[in-house]
Every structure is written in structure tokens, then in C-alpha cells.
Amino acid sequence: MQSSHPTARAQSRFGGLKTQVLPLLLTFLIPAFGLWFFDRAESKLDDEVRESLLAQVATSQNTSPEEKKAASDFYQSIKVSQVMASNDPSMAELQDMFEPAMLRYANFRWGKRISLACLSSLIFALLFVGAGVAWSLRSQESLYQALRLSWPVLRSIAALQVLGQGVLAVALSFWVTALWMEVYYIKLIGICAILALSGVALIYKAMLAKLDSRFDQMGELLSESQAPDLWARVREMASCLGVQAPDHIIVGIDASFYVTENDIWLDNQQVSGRSLFVSLPLLKVLDTQQADAILGHEMAHFSGEDTTWSRKIGPLLQRMDIYLAHLGQNALSFPVFHFLLFFRNLYNFSFGKMSRAREFRADKIGAEISSPAALASSLVKLVAYCEYRDKTEEEIMLHEETKSRPEMALRLEQGFPGFLSDFSKNPTSALTEVHHPFDTHPPLRDRIQALGFTMAAICAEPSPDGNVSASWYDRISDAVGIEERLWSQQEKLMMDVREVNRAMSLKPETEDDRQLIEKYFPEKIFTNPKGKVAILHHMSIKLCDWSEPVRFDQIVTMQLHDSWPKKMLHLTYRIDGQSKTVTHKFPAEIFHCENENLLDALGYYYGRHKNAEEMDQKR
User: Fold this and answer.
1) For the chain, how long is the longest CA-to-CA vector?
2) Distance CA 480, CA 504 (A)
3) Euclidean distance between the first and final Cα of the chain, in Å?
4) pLDDT digits (tens, 9 = 90+) for 109-154
């Protein structure tokens, strides 16, 4: 909903400026400052060399006044920096004369060149990729082509920026203090060098990172023999739209319907091709006409080639996300992170706009296959069911005992009719969106209005409830058995997660509590390449050369310091009964237990301890 208040609009514009444009400008900071600084440094050196030469001419005893004037005029007419940068062979003699300053001039000259290369590539990226984003708004194919062409450019420029700005940062860390304060700091130069190298390493890791395209879904394949009528109806819809019917129908208990051409994993079974996912719980609350409207909507995504373009576009966006995840880990690469993030958000806007447009198109076709009223009422039920399920799961996970069975299916069936009635009367329901694993959807109100209704009119229909007299659920053999198996898996997962959450929030005050904590936070022994041992307990940590363990409740601070060649963890703790603190420094990352390193494990165990302390205070 857009605000009509001038102050609200101004705040919105300022918020967009602050969160998008200002971080983008950070990318220009180092090269822009580098260009200005090295140009000033070069001019200053020119002045110093010229003054020195003029002083030598003025004090020369063996030169006539005419020769002195000619020499002074010559030295005042040239810039030594231009002489040193020249490739003209006639300048070789002059360049030899200024050889003592050659290295400094080379430094400043290359500093300017690298700065200009960084700035010009950033401007090129803004123009080229910006044009691609504008082009991407035309169609799904345009979006794919724009991403396909823009991503190699962005990837190359990101690598150039990390390398170039890293070199500039190291050079500036020396020359800024050397020229302005006539001193340099080895530690500052070393820190910048380490950050620059780690930034390059992160880019290299991002280049080698593999896409994780696996999509896991809890569900079962529905054969034609199990639901011949449903399969026939889906094929009939596909034929009406002139598209190939799905290769697979998958039934599950997630609160959504969707189609995809991506591979889906059902446990260890890989399902390839065109798939339609159908929610069994939702089929129970939708009558056949309402379900037909939803199924027609999903078939429309096949007719619009939405699934084809999503399959092509998704990996490109995922690759961009991998680069963002790596670049965000380093201080020097952080400006480049914001540069990529700016374009990622622009393409996300384009993809979202396209996704919403195709949802409206699919709604129109779904309404034609069934009826506008059926689709409108099914959308209300679908959105209400999603919200009710989320609230029910949250209540179970946060407020119930670990060992009690959730009984989700029973709760949803019994409570949904009453919730649906309340949902229909709630004015905020109009802004709710449909859950979907791949796409964004417009708000419910906009979709209802596009069908020619208002929320008030749809919700004013007599006795909206979750009970239906006839549904596709009834025409699936063993639908009850399938649903029971899937709910059993889901409830076991919920109980396991709930038990882990309880272990995360407990202090070991009883034997049962201690056993539960040790079930998920067992004692682990880590070793480094030299055989040194570290023992991690759910309440403490001890390295073999420490006199005693350090309990987590003794720890004052834990800080990770960039050091060469290894990062060092500084663990500061307070000795019992004293105000004195002691600091242990050790490279936690090189200690391993199977495939886990000590740094990550210690963060997890110590995080559990702090969470338990916080929860205990709240109690």
C-alpha cells in the first residue's frame, strides 16, 4: 500500500537512498581518493624536483646568466612526471637524469592508472548493466538475456575491483602517511595487505563454488492408478491450453500448489521433468471447482513458459548470491559487495515484477477454466490456511512440551473453519501473499480485484468455512494413508527441532537436562596438524597446554584477529574470585574433529551457553 502523506514519501525516498545508493557510492571511494591523492603526490614531487633543479641552476658557478635563464625556462616548462611517463626515445637522456625519483614516479603513475581503471570499469558496469536491467523489464526472455550478458561483466568487474582496490589500499596505507606525516606504519601496511590477499582469495573461492540446485520436497509421487480422475482432469486442462501435461504429480502436506521444471528430491529419489505439486490438506478444504481454478492457474504457468524461464534464470541469480556471500566476509571487498548487491536488488525487482505479472495472467486463465468466483474464494482459503498453519506451528514449537506429539493434522482440521471465518472479517487479510517456493505473488486484495471482485464481496459470501461436500481429495486412493505417513515424518522433524531448541535454552541443573544437552552438544576432541589437542565441552574449552579448562561463564570476550599466516582467536576470561583477566591466543581454525573446525564448534557451543543464560534470566 502506497502512502499519500508527503513526509512518508520523503522518508521512503531517503530510506531508499540510504540503503541502496549510499552504499553503492562506497565502491567509488578508494579509487576516487586514490586518483586524487596520487595526482597530488605526483604534482608535489614535480614541484620538489623543479625547485631542486632551479636551486642548482641558481647556485651554479660555471654557468653564464644566459645559460642559467635558458635552463630555468626549460625546467619550468616541463613536468618531470610527463617525462618519466614518456615512451619517446628522445626523452631517455632526461629520464636518466631523474632516475633517483623514477621509482616514486612509477608508484604514483600506476596508482593513477589503477584508480582510473577501477573508476572507468565501475562507470561502464553502471551503464551496461543498468541498460540490461531496463531491458529485462520487457519480458521473461529479455530478463534471461540481460542476466546472461550482464553477469559475466559484473563478475569480471567485481574481480578487477577486489584486486585493484586491494592494491590501491596497500599503496595508500604507505604513501598517505609517508607524504603527509613523513612516517609509515608496517602494521597498517600488513593489515591492508592481508585484507587484500584474503579478498582475492574470496573471489577465487566464489569462482570455484558449485551451485547447490537441489530442491528437497516432502511428498510422494502420485501414480495414475491412484488418482485416474485427477490425472485426466489435469491432462484435459493442459490440452485446452495447448501445452504438455506434467510428467509427474507429487502430493504432499505443504500448504501450496506449484509447478516446476527443476529437479525435485523426494528423500533420495530424484524426480526430473515437468512436475505438479498438490497439497493434500488444501485439497480437503477446496471443493472441486475451487481446486480446478488453482490447478488451471498452475497449468497456465506451463503455457506461459514461466517454469522454463525460471529454470534458466534461477541459476544466474544463485551464482550472483554466491559471490555476494563471499564478498561480504572481507572489509576491503565490502564496497564491491554493495556494488553487486545494488544490481542484484535491481534484477530482483525486475524478476519480482515479471513474477507478479505472470501470476495475474495465470489467475485469468485459472478463472476461465473454472470460474472467477471459484478462484477468488480458493485464494482466500489458500492464504488463510497458510497463515493458520504458520501460527499453529509457531505455537507448537514455542509453547509446548518437548515430548508431546504435535498432532498437526488434527489441529488444522478442527481449527481451520473458525480461523477462516475470522480471517475473512479481518481487513489486514487483504495484504497477505500466497506462499510459494519459487516465485513472489501479488497481495490477495490485488488478485481478487483483478478477478472483478472486492475482498468485502468475497468475504461476505454466506458461511465461509473449511468444510466441503466433494473434493479431489476423495478421489485419490490411499490419500488418508499418504497424508498420515507425511504428517508422521513432519511431526517427528518438529519434535526433533523442538528438542534441539530446548537443549539450546537449558542450563544443566538436573540430570535430565544435562543428558539432553549432551545429546546435541557432546564432548568433542579436536587436534591440529602437530597433534595438539583441544577438548570442547558444553560448558568449557581446554587446550592441552592450559593448566585448566576455561568455563564459558568465565569468558569476558572472544575476538578473532587477522594475523599472518593464521587467524588467531583471543579468548579473554576472568579468574574465579579475582578481577584479573587472562587471554589465551590460539589458531582455532586449524583444530579439526572429523569435518568440523574448533572455531565454528566453539561459536556454536558458546552461543548455546549465552542463549541459555538469556532464557534463564527471562524466566
Assistant:
1) 117
2) 36
3) 39
4) 899 999 999 999 999 999 999 899 999 999 999 999 999 999 999 9
